[in-house]
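Appendix B. One record, verbatim.
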Amino acid sequence: MSASSLTWSERPPTAEQFLQRVALEYEMLSNRLKLIARYVECNSEQIGLESVQSLAERCGVNPSTIVRFAQRFGFSGFSELRSLFRERLTREVSFSDDNRLPLSRSVGCLATKPQGQDRVAKHISGSIEAMKRLWRALDQEALASAANVLAAAQTIWIVGSGRSFPIAVYLEYMLQYTEKCVGLFSGLGGTHLAKVRSVRRGDVLVAISLAPNDDELLRVVQQAAQRGASVLAISDSRLSPVAQSAQLSLIGQETASPGPTGITATTALVESLLVELNFQLGLSAHPG
């Protein structure tokens, strides 16, 4: 059962479907419930361990508001909602146990290095965890649908800004081997909104959006949609304005760690999309 097929009062059966339901109904929530939704979406791996009091403190609301949030999505209260995330946490702990040795070895090697290795080890560990989360949570159906949309497109436009821009450049480079017409919004000279005039009905715009969200990127998405293009969002949050405005979205959450905010999971998500697209087009692996 998809999140969109759930009725207003039904209890989502899994944590993933609950998060999808929250994204679908996000704009209908009050401001206080939106605060909770954003926290839960960004910290879903900790919700199974939270008490209603601690979650309320982190979100800056009363415990009764947390209960109301849970009831809004068909749960009797927060404890029933938390049980969904505890079930997922149990599965993830089992997954981590199976993969603990490679991680411990990689961190252990770093621990033998001079001062500063702890920061580096934590940063690399965060990237590894982001990859594991992507592996566990990747929506294969959405990935196949996204590849199908790209396979059917004659022209594919790509836009990204900030730390998502290098991923956009990489995607544009790799898509050239599909022999499709590909265009990149570079933004040089403030040309984002000028270039959107070249977008036509039937084109596909791939918008790569990572926090902090960019207002100009959102305007490109909105104008491309108005011109009849399909929009595929690749984002780190279902609740980002770009993901909310897109017809289809792929989500890959990064893990906070010391140092620069990573792009590991998002890059791997784009690579996975290319793998699926190659398969649908009957192509061999792209050259490096």
